[in-house]
UniProtKB/TrEMBL annotation:
<keyword id="KW-0067">ATP-binding</keyword>
<comment type="similarity">
    <text>Belongs to the cation transport ATPase (P-type) (TC 3.A.3) family. Type IB subfamily.</text>
</comment>
<keyword id="KW-1133">Transmembrane helix</keyword>
<feature type="transmembrane region" description="Helical">
    <location>
        <begin position="16"/>
        <end position="34"/>
    </location>
</feature>
<dbReference type="GO" id="GO:0016020">
    <property type="term" value="C:membrane"/>
</dbReference>
<dbReference type="InterPro" id="IPR059000">
    <property type="entry name" value="ATPase_P-type_domA"/>
</dbReference>
<dbReference type="InterPro" id="IPR051949">
    <property type="entry name" value="Cation_Transport_ATPase"/>
</dbReference>
<feature type="transmembrane region" description="Helical">
    <location>
        <begin position="72"/>
        <end position="90"/>
    </location>
</feature>
<keyword id="KW-0472">Membrane</keyword>
<dbReference type="Pfam" id="PF00122">
    <property type="entry name" value="E1-E2_ATPase"/>
</dbReference>
<keyword id="KW-0479">Metal-binding</keyword>
<dbReference type="GO" id="GO:0005524">
    <property type="term" value="F:ATP binding"/>
</dbReference>
<keyword id="KW-1278">Translocase</keyword>
<keyword id="KW-0460">Magnesium</keyword>
<dbReference type="InterPro" id="IPR008250">
    <property type="entry name" value="ATPase_P-typ_transduc_dom_A_sf"/>
</dbReference>
<dbReference type="GO" id="GO:0046872">
    <property type="term" value="F:metal ion binding"/>
</dbReference>
<feature type="domain" description="P-type ATPase A">
    <location>
        <begin position="127"/>
        <end position="218"/>
    </location>
</feature>
Length: 219
């Protein structure tokens, strides 16, 4: 059911973008026409087609907010639609269409950036290690969940393993790939006393570290 729901939402977004592009093309066509009635009709059509989704969202959001707050609470989308309607009423068809095109375009761009950021954050969380090799009081090693780590715990990081949380190297050296947090693909050489960050990958020899941040505070 969730898959169908997500698929339906994606289809709606794709349809809205297609209609937006159709609105842009219609707007350009309207600018090229000199016949007043045909020009006005195309520009109004462009505004409706390009902005139908944001206008619909504005109406629904306004209704929901008004019911919740028990007073009229217009959404910014609705206000933009009313401004465009006012421009049409006074014969400023080009301005009305341009207002909707700019606002709808900004809306789609904002959604794209948010979705991209959400996917990147999800990918980073998926990459985060779930277990760590922790030294016990006797010096033996035990494998524990990362969520069980405490500040001050001493860990062993094997060659090729991910650093489970932020800390400081207390023995050995490391060559860490920090691309996951900095975007820099060149490994950084670390030695005793240097800070290391959770999620980075150890590409050199095994080293020991002391935890300085809990897993929910790590980078």
């Amino acid at each position: 059911m969730n898959i169908k729901c997500k698929g339906g939402i994606k289809d709606e977004k794709n349809k809205a973008i297609i209609f937006y592009m159709l609105g842009v093309i219609t707007f350009i066509g309207g600018l090229l026409i000199t016949q007043p009635i045909a020009r006005a009709a195309l520009l109004v059509f462009a505004a409706i087609v390009a902005g139908y989704q944001v206008i619909a969202e504005g109406i629904m959001s306004t209704i929901q907010a008004t019911r919740k707050r028990r007073r009229f609470s217009p959404n910014i989308h609705l206000l933009m639609a009313l401004a465009a309607l006012g421009a049409i009423a006074i014969g400023s068809f080009e301005e009305a269409a341009m207002l909707i095109l700019i606002f709808a375009g900004a809306h789609f761009l904002e959604e794209y950036v948010e979705n991209k950021s959400r996917k990147e954050i999800t990918a980073l969380l998926a990459m985060a290690p779930q277990e760590a090799r922790r030294y016990t009081d006797t010096g033996a090693l035990e494998v524990v969940p990362v969520t069980a780590l405490n500040i001050g715990d001493q860990l062993q990081i094997l060659n090729g393993a991910q650093v489970p949380t932020d800390g400081v190297i207390i023995a050995g050296t490391a060559s860490l790939n920090e691309a996951a947090i900095s975007g820099e693909s060149i490994p950084r050489e670390k030695q005793t006393g240097d800070e290391v960050f959770g999620g980075t990958i150890n590409g050199k020899s095994t080293f020991d570290m002391r935890v300085t941040k809990s897993s929910d505070e790590t980078v």
